[in-house]
Amino acid sequence: MNNNNISRRSFLKGMAAVGATVAAGKMLSSCAEPAKSEGTSPYDPTAEVPTDKMTYRINPNTGDKVSILGYGCMRWPMVKDENGKDKIDQNKVNQLVDYALEHGVNYFDTSPVYCQGQSEEATGIALSRHPRDKYFIATKMSNFAPEQQTYEGSVKIFENSLKYLRTDYIDYLLLHSVGGGGMGPFNQRFIDNGVLNYLQEQRKKGVIRNLGFSFHGDVEVFDYLLSKHDEWHWDFVQIQMNYMDWRYAKKQNPRNVNAEYLYGELEKRGIPAVIMEPLLGGRLSKVHDHIANTFMEKTPGRSIASWAFRFAGHYDGVLSVLSGMTYMEHLQDNIRTFSPIEKLSDDELVFLDKVAQQLISYKTIPCNDCKYCMPCPYGIDIPTILLHYNKAINEGFIPGDKEESEYNALRRKYLISYMRSLEPERRADHCVNCGICMPHCPQNIKIPKELQKIDKLVDSLI
Predict the structure, then answer these.
(1) What b/e readout covers 76-109, taking b as 16+ CB neighbours within 10 angstroms?
(2) Could you report the per-residue pLDDT of 90-124, keeping only the tens digit for each?
(3) Quick one: DSSP state of residue 254?
(4) Model's pTM, two decimal places?
(5) Do the beta carbons of residue 167 and residue 208 sit within 8 Å?
(6) What pLDDT score does 12 carry?
(7) Is-contact 407 444, C-beta < 8 A?
(8) E strands of 134-207, at which residues?
(9) 218: which DSSP letter?
(10) Alpha-helical regions (H) of 170-258
């Protein structure tokens, strides 16, 4: 690797081989029995997960008793089929859904576009094995493609949702991701084609029990929709809310709207809020090491993620907090957090605000791993590239000055982890700056620019 004439391709292959060896070593070491610490933490992750202590909130419109922990079905576990394509692991989904229901979770949020279009069907299969009155289904009118924005195209989306979810009614139906691009796209998707009128008719018939919208983007759209509340009557609204976005969303991106404002406007009108991105796509559970240490000092044994979930559920107008729980341990940890929820003290709210101010100083990319930018027509795994970069920042292994004593070790660590995370054809150097991904990003990330920055970094380390 010290040969200056070595090609980029040969170097990357070599690093990938080293990465595979490291990964194998980690897999072997993970089989060992973990050491147990002395004493018992009040937040002992090995304690039995409670089945009868879940916190519930009452929907004032319907009287629904909704679990404050909602299951976000955007990140179901995936496997490869016989052709090497991604498909949902239905057996694992069934296990996760069964466990969630057994432990008090009853709100499941999906969409026609989640998991490469597979989420609704997988969710429907898992839930339909249980009595229909034991759970609430939320799904979305995800009519993003031009051919779906006709009246007929949108009606077909809704009818397919009923079919795939194996139900004859939807408990919570959302206009999906309104706000991006301003009023023009909203009118085109829902007003000019008569789709909002159709959905309101379905609500009158009981086929939709609650009608709302999920918001990303321009505040003028949010304000306009709330100004029409008396006419359209929103039963609930889904917003992005966490302790970073509460007061500092605009500092992260001028187009964002502070969650304090969004929640406050809903609270004024008595509209229940459903919370998405309480962890900012995992960024609030993978914070910089020295910030992680402050969390652990305050509450030993409690996960860093639990702080963010407690913040999102702290406010009484919140009906449910969504979490995309791919793994059983994440589901178990979140059930503990909300069984029952322990509201934050004034001191803890101040502490989280200080943490948010610290996090803003780290120049991470505001990717929430929503995968709306996917698939890339050139095969690039955009979310994995951006999240790997954020991980490197948070864990402090982005190399700096070449004269620093740790430069070579950090360089090696960054490159090995990058190669292990991504297959060669899915890396940043394949970006051609087509920009197809950008209109779909709720966070308004300049994705090609970020990919080129990361590729330039990789190039500089080789």
Answers:
(1) bbbeeeeeeeebbbbebbeebbebbbebbbbbbb
(2) 999 999 999 999 999 999 999 999 999 999 999 99
(3) T
(4) 0.78
(5) no
(6) 55
(7) no
(8) 136-141, 170-178
(9) -
(10) 183-186, 195-205, 219-227, 229-232, 245-252
